[in-house]
Amino acid sequence: MEANGLGPQGFPELKNDTFLRAAWGEDTDYTPVWCMRQAGRYLPEFRETRAAQDFFSTCRSPEACCELTLQPLHRFPLDAAIIFSDILVVPQALGMEVTMVPGKGPSFPEPLREEQDLERLRHPTTVASELGYVFQAITLTRQRLAGRVPLIGFAGAPWTLMTYMVEGGSSSTMAQAKRWLYQRPQASHRLLHILTDALVPYLVGQVAAGAQALQLFESHAGHLGPQLFNKFALPYIRDVAKQVKARLQEAGLAPVPMIIFAKDGHFALEELAKAGYEVVGLDWTVAPEKARECVGKTVTLQGNLDPCALYASEEEIGQLVQQMLDDFGPQRYIANLGHGLYPDMDPEHVGAFVDAVHRHSRLLRQK
C-alpha cells in the first residue's frame, strides 16, 4: 500500500477484498454476497433517479450510472458493486438502434434478417471508443467507492447478444436466432466473431478504467441444447476469456477474476468450468452439490438462491440461505441469487438475504 492510501492505479486502497479472495479461490472469513440487478427498480431511490430519463440516456451518463451503482451499497453491506449499464450497449456501439420500451423491454427497429445485414455493422475495433461513457462511469464509481468493496464490470456473451440482434428484442423461443444457426451457420459464426472482437477490447477497457472483476452474461444459454451450445456459444465464451487475459497482460494490467453466468446452462457446467473463468455462476435450477461434483475444486461457484425466495418471510429467507450455504460449503463460494432481483421485491427482504449470508457463513466456519 502506498503512503497516501492509494492503490497502484491511483484509486483508493481496497478495504474489503473478501469477494476477490473468494473469486480467486482463496480462503475467506465469511461468504461474500452481492445480487444481480442489485442496482434496480426494487429500490424507490432508483426509480426516483431514473424517473426523468430514458433508459439508454441514463446508461450514457457516468454521473447517473455511478449514483445508481452506489445506491444499494448505502442500504446493504454488500461485498461487491456492479456497474450500472446494459449488455445492449455493445450492439448499439456496432451501429444498431436499440430502444427500451417501458413494460416491454428492449426493441431493435431494424434487426438482422439476412447475412448482408452484417455489412451494416461498424467494425468491432471501433466499439471500445464508442463506449467511453461506460469507462468514465467505472472510473468515477471506483473513486467514489473509496475502496469500500470491489467493482465488477460486465458484458453479454456473443450468443446472447446475437439473439437480441436477430430477434429484435426478447423472445420466448429464440426461433429466429436459432433459425440462423441451422440455416446460416457460416453467417452465424461471422456475427459471433464480430461480437467477440468487439467484447474483448470493451472488457479490457473496463479493467483499464477500474473494474476489479468481470462477469460475462450468457443469459440465453438455455435455448441451446448441448450440441448447439458447444458449437455456437462455448467456443466464443472461451475466446473472450483467453483473449481478455492475454490483452490485460500485454497492456501491463493486473489480472482480474472472470465470472461466467450461463443461465439454464446446467448441461454445460463441466465445460464452463474449463472455459478459462475463475468463477462459474449458477441459476436456481442447479443443485449446489451436483454443481460442485461437476466442476471439481478448481473453480469458485456463485449463486444461486431462487430470486422469488425473497417473496418469503424474512425468517424463511434465513432458513433458505442456511440450507444453500450448507450445500455449497464455506470456501470457493460467492453467494448470489440465481438471476436478477425483480422490480416488485421488498428491499427489506434483500437486506435479510445479505445479513443471513454473512451471519450463517461465519457460524459455518466455527463448526
UniProtKB/TrEMBL annotation:
Catalytic function, reaction form: uroporphyrinogen III + 4 H(+) = coproporphyrinogen III + 4 CO2; uroporphyrinogen I + 4 H(+) = coproporphyrinogen I + 4 CO2
Protein keywords: Cytoplasm, Decarboxylase, Heme biosynthesis, Lyase, Porphyrin biosynthesis
Any one Gene Ontology BP term: protoporphyrinogen IX biosynthetic process
InterPro entries listed in its UniProt record: UROD/MetE-like_sf, Uroporphyrinogen_deCO2ase_HemE, Uroporphyrinogen_deCOase
A single cellular component GO annotation: cytosol
CDD domains xrefs: URO-D (cd00717)
Pathway per the UniProt entry: Porphyrin-containing compound metabolism; protoporphyrin-IX biosynthesis; coproporphyrinogen-III from 5-aminolevulinate: step 4/4
GO molecular function: uroporphyrinogen decarboxylase activity
Keyword Transmembrane helix: no
Presence of keyword Repeat: no
Subcellular localization: Cytoplasm, Cytosol
E.C. numbers: 4.1.1.37
A Pfam family annotated for this UniProt entry: URO-D
Span of domain Uroporphyrinogen decarboxylase (URO-D): 32-41, 152-168
Record family assignment: Belongs to the uroporphyrinogen decarboxylase family.
Quaternary structure, from the entry: Homodimer.
Alphabetical list of HAMAP family matching this protein: URO_D (MF_00218)
Function: Catalyzes the sequential decarboxylation of the four acetate side chains of uroporphyrinogen to form coproporphyrinogen and participates in the fifth step in the heme biosynthetic pathway. Isomer I or isomer III of uroporphyrinogen may serve as substrate, but only coproporphyrinogen III can ultimately be converted to heme. In vitro also decarboxylates pentacarboxylate porphyrinogen I.
Protein name: Uroporphyrinogen decarboxylase
Organism: Diceros bicornis minor (South-central black rhinoceros)
Organism classification: Eukaryota, Metazoa, Chordata, Craniata, Vertebrata
